[in-house]
Amino acid sequence: MSKPIVRFAPSPTGHIHIGNTRVALLNALFARREGGTFILRFDDTDLARSKQEYADSIEADLAWLGIPPNVVVRQSERFELYDDAAERLKGIGRLYPCYETPEELEFRRKRQLARGLPPIYDRAALKLTAEDRARLEAEGRRPHWRFRLDHRTVEWDDLVRGHAHVDCGSLSDPVLVREDGTYLYTLPSVVDDIALGITHVIRGEDHVTNTAVQIQIFEALGAKAPVFAHHSLLITASGEGLSKRLGHLSVKGLREAGLEPQAVASLAVLVGSAEAVRPMADLDELARLIDFSHISRAPAKFDEHELEQLNARLIHEMPYEAVRERLAALDADGGEAFWNAIRGNLSKVVEAAEWWVVVRGPIVPLITERAFVEQARNLLPPEPWDGRTWKAWTEAVKEATGVKGKALFLPLRMALTGLDHGPELGALLPLIGREKAWARLSGEAA
């Protein structure tokens, strides 16, 4: 296989959600694995709704996920290409003008349904003479332009779905150019795929019908269609479809919530496939797991609770060097020993700051068994302390007091940390140090 060229083509009209991210990751990681090119193409022909702030946000999201594009293009800068393609299609009779108003089209649709006929466009505009068109334009009507489909079955081998086919005789001729001369999605997408040399179009299964139409446009423009892969869509845990407009699971929101990009990528790529969902810290390793033929046809649920669990599992295995700069930014860089002591209790890296406060203080100790805690304080061993100090100390306290189990450990934890839960004190106690431990066991904030 030659090196693939793929594209992710969002409209910069809002923040991308996790469903969009699934498309971006499958494209980017496939290209990465095969040594290909990943293109970010902004479908921003809707100049009124497209905003630079959303384009910037999308690029930031992709960079955070670890999949920055090799190339960035904007459809708003490529109108000459689309104009040229439209004229070529007009010249061969495949793009024809239509003058019906939306109200007229709706009336015809209802009439066809009432007759038991499929509600597709009846191609009445093809019967218009030059005089008819002149008369309609004299009335102030401006044409929209439809692509004349060949009424045949279009077939292709889909990397996800296997052999696929769509009967184009059951479809309306699609509008490619609006009355105001602006383009709908379909034509610019095909033109760009040709111009950019796209070899594989990897996208959601909601585009299957579009594919049949686009294959005919590729052929009308004298180009070979790329390979297609239509993967299953993501839905929320409650079964809703994802919406950029409604802000469902936006990548920006997940990032700001402190989640790890590897956790988001792992779930977005592996859910709904034959692979077990698990945290993948290495994107190259995740890329090796992509097999389009193993992606389920059924919609896959993206569960935020499952994402949080993956996030925690990633952090529990994360080495200190991977988080050192982030800990410093949180003013919580207690070194490798501190990170190794607390990471098993974290669900997000930002929570490390809370445990650094516990170590550094001051904290207010919680003392429920004062006499017992005072006895334990008086048995504190001298420094230096290490990972064996906690066990040696508690063994001495147990022998002196006869207290054991939870009754031994919980009062000491609460006095030393101000909490009834947390990391193993065998690792935490040396970080707290004897001076702070003595003060806290005495009931002093330290």
- Please state the CA-atom Rg, rounded to the nearest Å: 31 Å
* CATH architectural label of the domain at 370-441: Orthogonal Bundle
> Which parts are unreliable, with pLDDT below 50 for 5 consecutive residues or more?
none
Strand order of the largest sheet: 1-2-3
Number of strands: 12
Helix vs. strand class: alpha/beta
CATH topology (level 3) name of the domain at 370-441: Arc Repressor Mutant, subunit A
Largest sheet: 3 strands, parallel
Q: Give helix % range.
A: 40-55%
Average pLDDT number: 95
CATH class of the domain at 370-441: Mainly Alpha
* Alpha-carbon distance between the two ends: 65 Å
Instruction: Name the beta content range.
Output: 5-15%
What is the molecular shape?
Answer: elongated
Number of helices: 19
Structure report:
- Keywords: Aminoacyl-tRNA synthetase, ATP-binding, Cytoplasm, Ligase, Nucleotide-binding, Protein biosynthesis.
- It is a single chain.
- With 446 residues, the chain is of the alpha/beta class.
- Among the domains are: 251-316, Glutamyl-tRNA Synthetase, domain 2 (Orthogonal Bundle); 320-360, no CATH class; 370-441, Arc Repressor Mutant, subunit A (Orthogonal Bundle), CATH 1.10.10.
- The protein has 19 helices and 12 strands.
- The chain has helices at residues 18-34, 52-65, 79-91, 102-114, 130-138, 186-195, 208-220, 251-256, 261-270, 283-288, 304-316, 320-329, 335-342, 352-360, 370-378, 389-401, 406-417, 425-432, 434-441, and strands spanning 5-8, 37-42, 71-74, 95-98, 144-147, 153-158, 162-167, 175-177, 200-204, 227-231, 234-236, 300-302.
- The strands form 5 sheets. A 3-stranded parallel sheet has the order 1-2-3. A 3-stranded antiparallel sheet has the order 4-5-8. Strands 6-7 form a two-stranded antiparallel sheet.
- Helix 13 packs antiparallel against helix 18 (425-432).
